[in-house]
Specification:
2 copies of one chain form a homodimer. Chain A has 111 residues and is of the alpha+beta class. Chain A is built from 6 helices and 3 strands, in the order αααβααββα. Helix content of chain A is 64%, strand content 13%. In chain A, helix 4 packs across helix 5. The structure holds a DNA duplex (30 and 30 nucleotides).
Chain lengths: 111, 111
DNA sequence: CGTTCATATGACTACTTGTTCATATGATAA
DNA sequence: TTATCATATGAACAAGTAGTCATATGAACG
């Protein structure tokens, strides 16, 4: 410690969540920190969609979308169901909408 | 387009925000997508703190913290005030707390 | 069976980024 | 001024990652 802020440090240190929890938190936000994934999540918040529909909507490769969907699925933000050859993805959690909503509020509410 | 989902595509396409807005949104979440920055933001949500206090709290270099504070300041998530040689940082926006809170809800509310 | 459609996957590459190290700035005190 | 404290900054390096390309899987159809 350089100058004196022991009391403050102790206070904040007790309130700070465990490293692992904060790491999980940043990992969660990291998923929203890519424009392709945010677009996918936003689209899925409107409607369930199949992979090629998302790819066309975003003007991107099926492969690129598939990779991102896997990332989102591994994190349990989206889930899928199969219907013949087509696989439909949807949000697995309403928190996704809430988180995106909060972000939008920050962006749009500028005085 | 490969198989038929024109109606859905048109519907979702009109509801999807502009590319630039979604890009800004992902840029915002990107800031929360690093454990060091999340820790800093969480700490500052408890109390205003100087750089070396944050560095000690997180067990990291003053330089590393300073770099991240600059990133957060450029994004207008934190602001600073000078008091002699010391510079105190604080959250510049209550949305930061709300966003972190939403993330926590998602993490903790598991059934 | 073989073919086609929809999606998934693995390897590779180019780009981004968080930290370190050394140094600079800027304020205070002697 | 010189020294010291608190912070900022620039360059460089290592680790992570989004997209591409080629290929694999898996279901439906003839």
């Amino acid at each position: 410690m350089i100058h004196n802020h022991l009391d403050l440090l102790n206070k904040v240190k007790t309130d700070l969540p465990a490293d692992e929890l904060l790491s999980d938190l940043s990992d969660l936000f990291k998923l929203f920190g890519d424009s392709t994934r945010v677009k996918i999540l936003f689209a899925l918040s409107e409607s369930e969609m199949c992979v090629c529909a998302i790819a066309e909507l975003l003007g991107m490769t099926q492969s690129a979308i598939s990779h991102q969907l896997r990332t989102l699925k591994d994190a349990n933000l989206v889930a899928s169901r199969r219907e013949g050859k087509t696989i439909y993805y949807h949000l697995s959690d309403d928190h996704v909408r809430a988180i995106i909503g909060q972000g939008f509020e920050h962006l749009t509410e500028k005085q």
